TrEMBL record:
<keyword id="KW-0560">Oxidoreductase</keyword>
<protein>
    <submittedName>
        <fullName>Pyridoxamine 5'-phosphate oxidase family protein</fullName>
    </submittedName>
</protein>
<dbReference type="InterPro" id="IPR052019">
    <property type="entry name" value="F420H2_bilvrd_red/Heme_oxyg"/>
</dbReference>
<feature type="domain" description="Pyridoxamine 5'-phosphate oxidase N-terminal">
    <location>
        <begin position="26"/>
        <end position="135"/>
    </location>
</feature>
<dbReference type="InterPro" id="IPR011576">
    <property type="entry name" value="Pyridox_Oxase_N"/>
</dbReference>
<dbReference type="Pfam" id="PF01243">
    <property type="entry name" value="PNPOx_N"/>
</dbReference>
<dbReference type="InterPro" id="IPR012349">
    <property type="entry name" value="Split_barrel_FMN-bd"/>
</dbReference>
Length: 169
């Protein structure tokens, strides 16, 4: 996504001495975080939340999961999801919530770049095979890779507490 999102400081949910979070700070958290929480919805409407690593690349968050796993089945019926990351601290840090739509990534060039990110960041090696990741350490375990295109991103800074809402063109 070549364009930077527009940000809006949400004073209603911020302390008087709070301020807007710059997009660069949000992107840094998305780029550097190792773990995220993925929230999807089951076919019967019940929520499903699972921790997983995700990679920020080209303005999207990417994750992989086995095709048989609950999150993959949920995405089949409803491509909308939320990914969150941040800190478990009450008085410091930056928490980020990404709301968006999921699409499977099949492009070998993008998958190769993502596999390199997983290797560099987490020391987790994947091979790219037939438009999916393959974990060479597990008997031909393949995992589709998904990209979340953000529709809205919320950034919550702490001490002072503030909320900034980013929307995308």
């Amino acid at each position: 996504m070549g364009t930077e999102p527009s940000g809006q400081y949400v004073s209603e949910f911020s302390e008087p001495d709070g301020s807007a979070v710059p997009w660069g700070d949000v992107e840094r958290v998305l780029r550097e975080s190792e773990m995220f929480w993925l929230s999807t919805v089951r076919r019967d409407g019940r929520p499903h939340v699972a921790p997983l690593p995700a990679m920020w690349l080209d303005g999207k968050l990417h994750f992989c999961t086995g095709a048989h796993e609950q999150k993959a089945r949920n995405i089949e019926s409803n491509p909308r999801c939320v990914l969150t990351t941040g800190t478990n601290s009450y008085r410091s840090g930056l928490d980020v919530v990404v709301e968006g739509t999921v699409a499977q990534v099949n492009d070998e060039t993008t998958l190769t770049r993502l596999a390199q990110l997983w290797r560099d960041k987490l020391d987790w090696s994947f091979e790219v095979v037939d438009g999916q990741f393959r974990d060479p350490g597990v008997d031909d375990h393949r995992a589709p890779v998904f990209a979340v295109t953000p529709a809205k991103v919320l950034a919550f800074s702490k001490a002072p507490y503030s909320q900034t809402r980013f929307t995308f063109p």
